[in-house]
Fold this sequence. Notes:
The structure holds two protein chains of two kinds. By secondary structure, chain A is α/β, with parallel strands linked by helices. Chain A is built from five helices and five strands, in the order E-H-E-H-E-H-E-H-E-H.
Amino acid sequence: MPKILLVEDDPSIARMLIRILTLGGHYEAVHAAEGKTGLELALSISPDLILLDIMMPEMNGMEVLDALKANATVSHIPVLMMTNLGSEQNAHLALEKGAVDYVVKSDVDPQEVLATIQKYLQPLPTPSN
Amino acid sequence: MESIRRRLLRTFLYLIGIVVIGGLFAVSAMVWITQQYRSTSQVIITEYRLVAAPGGLIAAYNTRAESNANNTAQAEQEIKNEEENIRSLEAYLDAAITDKASLSDYIGLKNSLADLIQTIDASIAKIESGNLSGYDADYNNANQKYGFVKENGTTLIFSELNYIASLQQQTDRLYVICITLGIALLILTLAIGTIYSWRFSRAITTPLSRLTTLAQRIAHGDMEISMDPDLLERKDETGSLSQSFNVMVRQLKTKISELHHEKASVEHEVEQRTAELSHEKTRLAASIASLPLGFIMTDDDGELVSMNQEAHTILSYHLSRQGVSEQDTKETRDRWTLEKIDSKFGSHFSFKNELKQTLIKGKPVWHDNVEFNGRVLRLFFAPVKEESRKGPVTLGVIVLVEDVTEERLLARSRDEFFSIASHELRTPLTAIRGNSSMVRQFYGNTMDKEAAEMLEDIHDSSVRLIGIVNDFLDVSRLEQGRLELNMEVFSADEVIEQLIYEIANAYPGKKVHLAFEKPHKSLPNLYADKNRTKQILYNLIGNAMKFTEKGSVTVQVVPRGSTALQIEVTDTGPGINPESQRLLFRKFQQAGDSLFTRNTTQGTGLGLYISRALAEKMAGSVNLTRSEPGKGSTFAVVLPIEPITKSHA
Lengths: 129, 649
């Protein structure tokens, strides 16, 4: 069962996304409520995909993304930015930093979320990339 | 007084007249005397010849007496010739001798001559009659008579010589007279000439020297002169000179007073102009000083010429030791130099270089968002040009400096507000949407119909609300010019097909046929922001589907000129009445007088406004191309196609 790390600070959104992952996608969901924890978890459990919120206290999503991509052990893991910041600038920036996609949470229904996750889960990248 | 020239001429003529007359007189006197002399000489010579003539007669008489029959005729002829000669001489003298004294002597001579001739004639008569006796006595008689003739002749000649002597005396006297007259005339001429020269020169130099004095006085600036009336009244050349001089002086006075007036009025004008200019200058300086912009002027060497208070205020910002941006109160306006200004900018902006570039290129340039010691500035560099014969010449550069820190902060904060606001709104909405969707998905079959419907309404409302939040954010970004586009080349067909698939799925039971009529030949790709194009088309096709109950919604693509494509969405819906058509693309506008009269089911009312604004930002447009109430409407989106050549440098 693919492991998906969810880094999201809002409790209700987190609960919803976990439900989508477990009930809808039958994935194993791991949740970090803030950036630092998220990074630690990524390093320790090595998930198959990371769902990353941007607007978080202390360490925001962009900073986590930078850290992930800077660390060779986790840089290969596909990162999907899940945010409610709707600026194209942010999307570009994230993609430039190495995220595979950028999803505006409020614009999508759960099925779309699962479809997008599935898209990026299918090819299993080798760690050496 | 008549003209001096005429007077001179007259006097000269008189003198000449006198000389000529005198000369004529002397000459005629001389001529008369000479004539007398000559005629008297002629008379004397004739008298001498007359006195000598009888000698020849007597010789001829002698010859006749001694002649024989052969030369008698010759001798008689000779006698006749001599007598004839004597008679002609007498005839001459008869006419010539006129004066009484000589006349009486001449008569004596003539008598004795006649006597002689008579004697000779008588003797010859005797000889011719052959009487030769007494010839000697006759011959001696004849000689004696001849002696009388000679005596009378000598007396006569002496008398004539006397006359000549008297003539000589007369001549001498005349000579003396002439010389005296001549000298007198010379003296007279000299005297008259001297007198006249003196009077003439006086007549001229006196008025001339008076005029000269007057002219000198005028030259020294004394215009209050008056001419002597007698000079003016003269009728000769000096009079006309004086009159002309007078007129000239008067005109000069007039001219000078005119010039004084002109000078005064010119000075007045200059004063006025100077005052005006100084007002202008003050006004200009005051305007520049009161500008809410910083104003800096440099010359063409890049040296600082002037700077206003606002520029000084802006440029005196510095970062304090605590890193706070504050104004340096120690800076004074007069200590600014170009070096100083340049040094206060960070390494990211070279003020000097920008000045130089402006001077070189001769074109104005903006520099926005220049960081300066904690403030944000907007700078405008403009060359100051002047037209000259060689073309435009750059005199210097004007720099306008604006402190836009507050503006930027405000804009940034407004944008931040909207970003944060939309983020905050979206978060709970996401939970509502996601959860309501999942409940329906996972527990739908255990729910009764009522509950399922309520859940669906909750879900739809959340989607609607999210749409509204997105629209608000878009409008805010569009209006602030903060919306960023990601232009790319893509195929319209792809986008349309995908959208139609999505939208059709959203209306599963709807009896409206939604289709894409693909174009027959392949059309060029679009050059636009893909997501935003999708947004526009989603809006138009979504609207068409929402408002059409039966029939179809068709999408077509046609070329529009050679630079764009037109995507048309045609529906068979109710159409839009003309009144509503006017308000279509406005924010929230709906037809109807009252604010309460709104159709609240029809979306935010922002969709078309946003679609049009987005299309225009991509150099395209959105329009209602046709609408018939009861029949349907067609909306068209025009977007530019991929540029063919990119080498329009």
